[in-house]
Amino acid sequence: MGEVYDGIDDKLREFIEAQHVFFVATAPSGESGHVNVSPKGLDSFRVLGPRSVAYVDYVGSGAETIAHLRENGRITIMLCSFEGPPKILRLHGRGRVLEPQDDDFAELRPRFPADPKARSIIRVDVERISDSCGYGVPVMSYEADRTLLRQWAEKKGNEKLEAYQIEKNAESIDGLPALRWVERT
């Protein structure tokens, strides 16, 4: 198997849209620092064009992806089928962090489900698209999206959610700056 594609065509888009989870990998520049891999879900991923994708980045306890992208822009997104024919798809590219104060955030936000806890949108210009067999990936059945993140954010409310981001999302575990709006507070 193992093919490299010129762009995201209808068949790849269909595969991408059928997946309930994807993984995001980033790393700081240089030899030190921590490589980060994060699972994502909740109907947060969109194909914008043949070489452009984006996802909503929800509030979390860390901001590694944001910090790494601010530093060097490198990102890989991996999707793999847990149901149906085996396949792993990797999208290598350059990512940009769009925060709520950015015009591009306001432009892209309506493409995703309404949700008050979106801290950013990650937009990726895809440079390489490749697949591999996925023969070693287990077959698993999707049951449902978890509702805990939404409940947690609603329980916190806007003021406490903002304070949480100031405390937890100002920088990465390696001390790299993360959310820009937090730096200003």
Q: What does this entry look like structurally?
A:
- With 185 residues, this protein is α+β, with helices and mostly antiparallel strands.
- It has one domain (4-183): Pnp Oxidase, Chain A.
- 26% of the residues lie in helices and 31% in strands.
- The chain is built from five helices and eight strands, in the order βαββββαββαβαα.
- The chain has helices at residues 10-18, 64-71, 103-108, 148-168, 180-183, and strands at residues 4-5, 22-26, 36-40, 45-49, 52-58, 74-80, 88-98, 118-132.
- Strands 1, 2, 3, 4, 5, 6, 7 and 8 form an eight-stranded antiparallel beta sheet that branches.
- A hairpin with a 2-residue loop joins β4 and β5 (52-58).
- The radius of gyration is 17 Å and the shape is globular.
- The relative contact order is 0.22.
- The mean pLDDT is 95.
Q: What are its keywords?
A:
185 residues, 8 strands, Pnp Oxidase, Chain A
Compose a concise summary of this entry.
The chain is of the alpha+beta class and 185 residues long.
Distance between the termini: 50 Å
> In the CATH classification, which architecture applies?
Roll
Order of helices and strands: EHEEEEHEEHEHH
Shape: globular
Q: Strand count, sense and closure of the main sheet? A: 8 strands, antiparallel
Task: Give the overall average pLDDT.
Answer: 95
| CATH topology value | Pnp Oxidase, Chain A
Q: Total strand count, please? A: 8
Number of helices: 5
- As a percent range, the share of strand residues is 25-35%
Query: Which class in CATH terms?
Result: Mainly Beta
Helix content: 25-40%
- Structural class category: alpha+beta
Low-confidence stretches: none
**Radius of gyration based on Cα positions:** 17 Å
Number of domains: 1
Q: Looking at this structure, what is the CATH superfamily?
A: Electron Transport, Fmn-binding Protein, Chain A
